[in-house]
Amino acid sequence: MRIMGLDYGSKTVGVAVSDALGITAQGVEIIRRKSEKRLRQTLARIDALIEEYQVESIVLGFPKNMNNTIGNRAEKSLEFQKILKKRTGLPVVMWDERLTTVEAYQTMAETKVRREDRKKYVDELAAMFILQGYLDFKRE
Fold it and tell me: What is the DSSP letter of 115?
């Protein structure tokens, strides 16, 4: 059973997918869009990836504030969750993603990814951290 991890942002969606055993998360791609309100192509690409990887559930990053409150970005993620559930028919689990972007930047710095290149990869890496956190939690 493969699980898809998504890092939903205003202009990008980082995508990761688990291995068939649900042990590790691998980055797949970053879906880019011109406007936050334009989701048709983003959803079509997610549909294609679900089919390609035979995904059975989705983990969506839930960007809570550091004080555990729900802000504007988290509200938008909840709206996206509803859209995904309706469109795909798959379960969509919300997963606390606080500090995953920070962790992604730190990992890239430690692995010597050039500073000017980091923005290209951060969303995909954040999606991997979101999904890996969920997979580790499920295993425990």
Answer: G
